[in-house]
Amino acid sequence: MLVQAFVNTLDVEDDADSLQRSSDLSAWLAAAGLGAADAALDAADLTAAVALRETLRAALRRHHDPADDVLTLNGPPLRLGFDGDGRPFVLGDGEGKGAGAGLARLLDIVVTAAAEGTWERLKVCPEQRCQWAFYDASRNRSGTWCSMAVCGSRVKMRAYRARQASTSA
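RESULT FIELD:
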């Protein structure tokens, strides 16, 4: 749920970004258990975090709308490590400074979720005014909107109105 919470630090519908300053990022990482509360982060850390967030949002969107191109992330320096059992995990920058370690932990969660087969259940609502990340708990993994009552209804109502307009024209 950390990846979902991270993607949702931007509320598209209300145009509210909770990562506007590096201190916001530091507080979010600390609250998520991914960094120290007193970490001194800078503008580069914030830029890397926002780039990661939007790359993750784009990747989650592909769970609805697959694409042919490869989505890449140009963010903090990352490395691949292996634990005592030989399982891979993502590491942040070697110096342990900045947001790299916390952001690497988020990417490690993504890699683990993909390996476990749960990554494709994390989706972004395709409603353009929403774009909220949600976990598809449906049995057959067919969930489309974050809320059928809100976003699903909006989309269906627009489609209905479009059909009505085309038949009356």
